[in-house]
Structures are given as C-alpha cells and as structure tokens.
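INFO worker-7 received task bundle
INFO bundle size: 2
INFO processing item 0
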Amino acid sequence: MRNFKTADGRTYKIRLDRREVDRIASKTGLRLTDLLTNPIPIRAALSDEIRLTDLMLEVVGGQLKKAGRTPEQFCEAVDLAVMKRFADAVIDEVVDLCPEPKRSQIRKMVASKRAAEADRDARATKIMEEGGTVADVVRTGYPVPKPIREWSGV
C-alpha cells in the first residue's frame, strides 16, 4: 500500500490488487498492469492531467465518500506535484504486483528512470534560475510539456 498527500495535507491510500486493477480498468479503460507489458498507453495516461485526474478519482473515490468530501474538493487540492506523487505511487503499486525476481529488476529500472528525471529537472531548474529560457532548457534535451509547446511554438 502506498500513500500520497494532496496540497491541503490530506493523505490518501493506494492499494492495488488484481481485483482493484480490473475494477479500475472497467471504469477508466486503463489496465494498469499493462504498464509492465505495454507501457505506452499507461505512460500517456499518467502524463495527461485529465486522464490522470480521472484515475485519481477512481482510486480514491471510496475514501472521499467516507470522508464526506466531493470530487471537486479533492481536485482543488491537486496540483502537478500531487499528480507526480500519485503517478509514482501507482507505478510502485503495479510493480509490487509482479512476482520476484522480476519485481526487483523492475524496481531498479524505475529507480534509475526517476534518478535520471530528477537530474534532468535539476539541470533545467538551474538553467532557468540563471536567467535561461525555455528554449535553453529544450536544447539540453528536456522534453517540452504539451501546454508550453502549444503557446510557445517550441
């Protein structure tokens, strides 16, 4: 089981098992275990704010009802950092569904990818703090988020 916090400090639990994966797939069309065999559609969904929010609401819907909170109240406390924490927790839960030794191998790959992303983000932050532009960041190989591509022409 994994936890993630929203911007208002509330903690939500993510607990995935095969039955929960099937339930989520029937509601959202996303079979989270495909992350292990055909990751492109799931990775795309985890990087799409609308689909990710739908997935978040499906995963925590029961907790919201128990707490007497609405989806709107939940979404007001969700920002990009919360979405990242949620996506990481979902990935970790899916990896936990794997048998050993595959689980250990996948954990190493995920850790390596996260370390590379953290390094890339640190480099991009440094460029921007030193007065660089989005174009300077892109020249380092940093992928441009879709909204920036749309308005900047990058």
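INFO item 0 finished
INFO processing item 1
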Amino acid sequence: MFQVHDQVVDIRTDTIQGTLEGCRLVSLRDARTGEEFLDRSLGEGVPSLQVLHAAGTSYPLGSGFKSGISYRRIADHILEVVLSGWDADGSLRITVDRETGDLLFEPSVHSRMRGIAALRWSIAGIRKDLDLVAPISQGFRA
C-alpha cells in the first residue's frame, strides 16, 4: 500500500494510486485506467500545509527554521507524515480503506502558540475539467 523513499510516498490500492512529496499530493491516478486527476504544474508554489491564525496571519508548516520531516507507519493501511518545525508541528495521516480502496487524509497541527484558527491542506492542481466531490469540514476555496 505504501512505499516511502527520499521524502516521496507512493500509495497503491486496487482503485487509486497517489504520490506525495512531503505532504504535497502531486499525483492521483485511477489504478485501472492510469488517468491522472491532478495537473502538477498548477500546484507549483502552493504550500501543502498552511497554519492559519485567528489574527489573519498564516505560514507554511514545515518550511521554517529547524524544520524536518519523518514517516511513521502505524499499520499496514495507515501512514503518518510528520512535520516538525520551530513554530508548530503537524502531521498528515493517510488511511487506506481496505474494502473500497479509498484514501482518507487527516491533517493536524500542534503548537505552543495561541490563536491557531485552522490548518489548510491544499490539493493544488485538480484538473479544470473535473468536478470535485469531497467531505470537507472547514470549507473550500477554488
């Protein structure tokens, strides 16, 4: 299901294949047809995880002073990408649904700083000819 090498995660299920570079989803393909759903060029320069503060400021997670990345396999169908940084630590937990092959991505952030309003995980590069249907708990900006 998961292969990790040089900060790249390859995910394979019976229905979908995905590739992450760090926490950035750079490829999402139909496993049967090979159809690519993301246009990688549209995602350049977009931070994958962004911390939003109540005061209106924001910063990309894991890109500042003393930042690092590690990977933790929790089970054969669960992998966690862990970002550590000076201002905050975060993670992106990836779970493969064993019955359907669907992927579930759960971003989270921890910080000693007060006033964190949200953590934004950007899926940049969704092809313009596709319609997105997703359960999103804190909104969507196109």
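INFO item 1 finished
INFO post-check item 1: The longest strand covers residues 68-75.
INFO post-check item 1: The CA atoms of residues 80 and 93 lie 4 Å apart.
INFO worker-7 idle
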